[in-house]
Specification:
Strand content: 5-15%
CATH superfamily of the largest domain: Aminoglycoside phosphotransferase (APH), C-terminal lobe
CATH architecture of the largest domain: Alpha-Beta Complex
Helix content: 40-55%
Largest sheet: 6 strands, antiparallel
Distance between the termini: 81 Å
Number of helices: 20
Length: about 550
């Protein structure tokens, strides 16, 4: 419901601060107040009273919204109420006026309406998706339920001639260019110039290459009236699932490909440090919707969303009236969002060849398997390929003397050649691939470098290392279990003696990971690495390598 009054007046931020002072007192409210907490964004302020929350829009004029008049703030409060009742009907209760009479501010009192607030049922932060993840309390069933709720929400979402153009290639191009233009004043200070240039370049390249895909999404009715600000902090597992704080102030932020909306949440979960949950959510969603083309667009839209968050944080640093904000903290978050955007840009612009190398028992297969889950990339294991060449069961041990039988130098040469052929097929399909092998020699590594250059693919070498005693312990444990790898303790000294250091691999293409640390920490180290390399850079490396050999 909306309570109407005969008279309304405009207000500036200074006058609004007086209202905020009044709302900071318990006697302002016509109901019992447990305690008053406040939260701030660049466009709004929320007062939490225990039972209810009250959200006030600030009189700001940004390029993408205008709240400078009371009429506009009232209108968007009404829109917020209507739109959020789609996903949280029992949370959003009313739009209520703040009045001024006899020198006093009142909530829905007599006198002149000078401001409006959205009244909501206050939800427990302990039950937010973000806090449940941080506490390790988000179970598999809850993720599945959320995926199902989102699938149904998008299925029912409005789709018409007004909404459809917001998913057009031209609109998406314009949105991306606007984001880059708005961020330009911060480049060189808060935003790293190199990453800015790379993200912008690969975004443009992706859009140009994928025009047909974006047109196909239009015809498939994938452009819907979505949420627009789908983050883990806006999702509560309370009396079912409540999803709050959708975008009400700009239709084009809400009208979008459903992938863009879901990508925002997946990016946010990645930002929180739980990529496996993001993967499960997306997988479950695709199972419900059968929208497998979503995977082609996911990293593009995750990059877009991460960039928007970085840009918004830059805007926040410009707020003159927010002396309480944590400037160092905001800068750190901004750079983390930028790092995420950069990583996604690397993933969607071109396929990546991940070379997971190192001594036996160094943790290669564990790292490769975890990366495959997160990146949705195919894993090619030398141990499997080698046995398939001879029609052997990959699961059955085939213990040979060092460099004899199927582990002879000749067979190893064939194995690594087959790995390259299989990797080439995956890259041709536009997918990334993970190679799990020792890659003991420079010669073997040169082969995969040449492939990356020829296929115009990104490449990164992840060298897995561990202390000698750890390697021995793992190999002893392997002998007591069924393992695909046939390397045993008696082979370790020979492998160590033959392993050629990765001195020829440039630092930006090489990550050295100590697998003694927790797996999650290792994965974070890998994914945070600056591993973008152009075909030209790889070509220069190969030219230098050939010159050295001549």
């Amino acid at each position: 419901m909306v309570i109407e009054y005969m008279l309304t007046v405009d207000i500036d931020s200074r006058s609004q601060s007086e209202i905020f002072k009044a709302m900071s007192r318990p006697d302002f409210y016509p109901h019992a107040v447990e305690k008053i907490e406040q939260t701030d964004t660049i466009i709004s302020k929320v007062f939490l009273t225990g039972q209810y929350a009250y959200k006030i829009k600030k009189p700001v004029d940004l390029e993408y919204l205008d709240f400078t008049t009371l009429d506009s703030r009232k209108h968007y409060c009404e829109q917020e109420l209507i739109l959020n009742q789609r996903l949280a009907p029992d949370v959003y209760l009313a739009v209520v006026p703040i009045t001024f009479d006899n020198g006093q501010y009142q909530l829905a009192g007599s006198g002149t309406a000078i401001e409006y607030a959205v009244k909501m049922r206050q939800l427990s932060e302990r039950l937010s998706m973000r806090n449940l993840m941080r506490r390790g309390k988000l179970d598999r069933e809850s993720i599945d339920a959320l995926a199902r709720k989102l699938a149904e929400f998008y299925r029912q979402g409005a789709y018409d001639k007004q909404i459809k153009p917001f998913g057009s290639w031209q609109t998406i191009w314009s949105n991306c260019e606007e984001n880059f233009r708005q961020a330009e004043p911060f480049v060189g200070e808060i935003i790293d110039d190199h990453k800015f240039q790379i993200i912008r370049a690969v975004t443009r390249a992706f859009l140009i290459r994928r025009i047909a895909l974006f047109e196909r999404r239009l015809e498939q009715h994938r452009i819907r009236d979505c949420h627009g600000d789908l983050r883990s902090g806006h999702i509560y597992f309370s009396d079912g699932i409540q999803i709050i704080d959708c975008i009400e102030f700009n239709d084009r932020f809400r009208y979008a490909d459903v992938t863009s909306d879901l990508a925002f949440l997946a990016m946010d979960i990645d930002f929180e440090g739980y990529p496996e949950i993001a993967r499960q959510l997306v997988d479950d969603y695709v199972d419900y919707t059968k929208d497998r083309e979503l995977f082609v667009l996911l990293d593009f839209y995750k990059c877009y969303r991460a960039w928007v968050r970085a840009k918004v944080n830059c805007f926040r640093l410009q707020e003159d009236n927010d002396a309480d904000h944590d400037t160092p903290g905001i800068i750190r978050k901004t750079k983390r969002y930028l790092d995420l955007a950069y990583r996604y840009a690397v993933q969607f612009t071109r396929p990546t060849i991940w070379v997971i190398c190192g001594l036996p028992a160094s943790g290669k297969s564990t790292i490769a398997g975890e990366l495959a889950k997160i990146l949705k990339a195919v894993v090619l294991r030398s141990d499997v390929v080698r046995k398939e060449l001879f029609g052997l069961d990959a699961e059955k041990p085939q213990i040979e003397a060092f460099e004899e039988g199927i582990y002879s130098k000749e067979v190893s040469s064939h194995t690594y050649a087959k790995l390259l052929l299989l990797a080439q097929e995956e890259v041709k399909k536009g997918g990334s691939v993970i190679l799990d092998a020792t890659y003991t020699s420079e010669h073997q590594r040169d082969g995969v470098l040449c492939l990356a250059k020829d296929m115009d693919a990104n490449i990164i070498f992840v060298e897995c290392v561990a202390p000698y005693q750890t390697l021995k312990k793992r190999l002893i444990e392997r002998e007591a279990a069924v393992a695909i790898s046939d390397a045993r303790l008696q082979h370790l000294k020979q492998f160590r003696a033959q392993f050629e250091p990765l001195a020829e691999i440039r630092d930006e293409l090489h990550i050295r990971v100590d697998t003694n640390m927790p797996l999650k920490q290792s994965i974070r180290q890998i994914l945070a690495h600056d591993h973008f390399a152009t075909s030209q850079q790889i070509g220069e490396l190969m030219k230098n390598r050939l010159s050295e050999k001549a």
